[in-house]
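Project standup — Tuesday

K.O.: blocked on the structure for the chain from last sprint. Re-posting the sequence here as requested.
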Amino acid sequence: MSFLPFAVAAWLLLVGLYGVVTSRHLVHLVLCLGVVQASTYVLLISIGYLHGGRAPIFVGITVGTPAVDPVVQALTLTDVVVEATVSALLLAIALQAERRFGTVDPDAIRELRG
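H.V.: unblocked you, prediction finished:
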């Protein structure tokens, strides 16, 4: 098992979190959360990867043939759907914030609270 996919996942997580912390625009914040979510895709796929493994279709192959874990693939697909839903919801909230407050700067919205 290679260390590289785990390093890429950690790097994506750190870059995304840095973007979330330093973001001054709500749409940028949503995109940075997407980068953080991409790190979970890389992590899940690297956990389920098996060098030399076959597709998890067990018809016509001999017993004992290494296969990639199908549960991790299903979790990754579920993760993609959840990320798309969360991004759509957050972008809709950002749009409503711009309509209501006239800005998408989180600091300016906080100052408008009074």
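K.O.: great, moving the ticket to review. Residues 4-111 form a domain with the Helix Hairpins fold (CATH 1.10.287.3510). Residues 70-101 form the longest helix (32 residues).
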